[in-house]
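User: Hi! I'm working on a homework problem where we have to compare a predicted structure to a textbook description. Could you give me the structure for the chain below?
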Amino acid sequence: MIIGVPKEIKNNENRVAMTPAGVKELVARGHKVYVQRTAGEGSGFDDAAYEEAGAEMLPGIEDVYAAAEMIVKVKEPVASEYGLVRDGQLVFTYFHFASDEALTRAMLESGATCIAYETVCDKGRHLPLLVPMSEVAGRMSVQEGARFLEKPQGGKGKLLGGVPGVKPAKVLVLGGGVVGTNAAVMAAGLGADVTIADISLPRLRYLDEMMPRNVKTLYSSRHNIETELPDTDLVIGAVLIPGAKAPHLLTADMLRLMRKGSVLVDVAIDQGGCFETSHPTTHAEPTYEVDGIVHYCVANIPGAVPYTSTLALTNATLPYVLRLADMGWREACQADEGLAAGVNIVKGKVVFPAVAEAFGLKCGKLKL
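Assistant: Happy to help. Predicted structure tokens:
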């Protein structure tokens, strides 16, 4: 198979979808790999490393799309890439279709087959390609939240862990999954007073047993969230419904319960955001204020630490890339129903129910 790795062009996205080590594996199996020049520089991989691994370097993004049967990316194609995706091509990346109607319709019109990292699952119904970036985003959400609590950044001027004689800041984590767990552990490690909320009692029992003493668990309900907000300094939104739009757990009217300079970090922004007042931001302009509350809603948080993120992501994606290249997507999906769960669009048809539901589209059945 001919595999193409274009350079990511989303704002401040420095990750790359394949390392030289991944290229070497594909080439050893007889596949052809085209990599756009400088695609790996942001993650610390220069062109020479790719060439040494057996890749052929192409100058422009158009050249990569034109040459490849399978495009492997990190983030969804942006508007300038829509016209480059062609009929019959396989695109394997994070898509988050349910939060982006323009992207969904563009990929439908392209005639491509789109397999989304975020809905691929394993035998335990976990999301193996979402986990590594969720781990990074969860930990970074606390780093960024702590930074924007600083007064020069618009926050109320609180140190997350406090100091002897001064109470630590209070952190509320909404969602007890991978993002929320990593956020809670990170915030607890910095000495904050942490509460993690979820609607699953078995999950809360597990978290109660494994979390440090400065982490409390709470059943997630509107009443309980509203009770917590007046004393909370930092809220981490970490809610996920696989492939679907995130629910709004904080409404616009709930912001009045918080003190000015408090910070909201919406890690669910890729799926539309779990705060009603959220809209996507970039690393260039990461925050904005609503009613005096600082909102951090960067849609590619792990892109700020591309070396760590690229290695973590490609550790997870490479086995799937190899399978798709070796077998073709249909045969690979026949052999692995978890990979088949990643197929969202096939030749102009939506085949993932949550995406169809988000935009009132007809959902076809995946035929392998």
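For your comparison, note the following. Residues 110 and 228 are 47 Å apart (CA to CA). The mean pLDDT is 96. Good luck with the assignment!
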